[in-house]
Structure formats: C-alpha cells, structure tokens
Predict the structure.
Amino acid sequence: MNNKPNKMEAYADINYLTPEKCEFYETDGGLLGMKMDGEDLGRVALLRMFPLRNPAKFISVRRENRERSDSRKEYGVIEDLSAFSGAQRELIDKELSRRYFVPEITKVTNVKEEYGHTYWNVETNAGERSFTVFDLNSNLLNLGGGRVMMVDVDGNRYVFPDVSKIGEKALRLIEIWI
C-alpha cells in the first residue's frame, strides 16, 4: 500500500484559522492585524474566496505588506465566519466591509451611452454617485434574483438590488447583457 500523498493532496494543504489559533486586533493606524500561535504577524488582508455566492465562508488571510516580495503569503483560511464572535467578529466584519464596499443603487437619475461608454448618475445607499462603465458586456454580472452588479472604469462595484425597478431608459441599455 502506498502512503505517499498524491500531488493534489499536497496542493490542498490548507491551514484553517480558528479563534483558538489566531487573534485579530486593530493596528495603531486603524487597520486589521493578526497574531497566530502567539506570534504577531502585523497587518493582514482578508479576501473572500467566493465573494458573491458565499461571502461568509472561506476567507483567505494574507500578509499585507506591499514592499515585501512575499506579500501574497497566505497565513490560512477562515472556513466560516460564524466561528468568530464578539470583538473578533466585529474587527473581521469591519475589514471586509471596508474592502468589499459595494453601494446599492436606489435610483438612476440619468444615464447616457456614447462610444461604448455608459455614463451613470445614480442615488445609492451611500449617497449620490456619478461613474462611467466601459463595455457593458464585460462589466455587468447577473447575480440572480433580479440583482445585477456593474463595475466602473475605476474598478468600483455597484449593485442594482432589483433591476426591474431602475427605470425604462436604463433597463433598455443593459437588458441585452443580463
């Protein structure tokens, strides 16, 4: 019998982070830091592995140091956010909200299309916004249930919580893409 792990098992070696293994804290600059097994690792970045389909599960915790060559080092994965509670959960949620800020569009006040660009003036749950989307075909994502996400030319994301309520003119512009 061969007890040697296959290549796939070697690649799937994941360090699952639990409240017993790690502790999150707020840095002096108001960002997220982490201690793991008693060692202070400094500032960390949280990245959702499945941000649209499963935002509360499989959160990658990585080094946040852009000057270092190994800045993408992954410390581990939070399998399920519900394992963390209290102050730890609040710190995690605050960081994820900062990184994944996606305003919901409540009203389209004006929209026009010129030369492959669509210019939007909207009201969102975070106030009035104006933005430009290039190539609606590539920058619209149907999330299902009437929800549609748009990505503007700067990489910002906006969500229509119910695309049927955005107004006839705006709906005509995007309906062939959703």
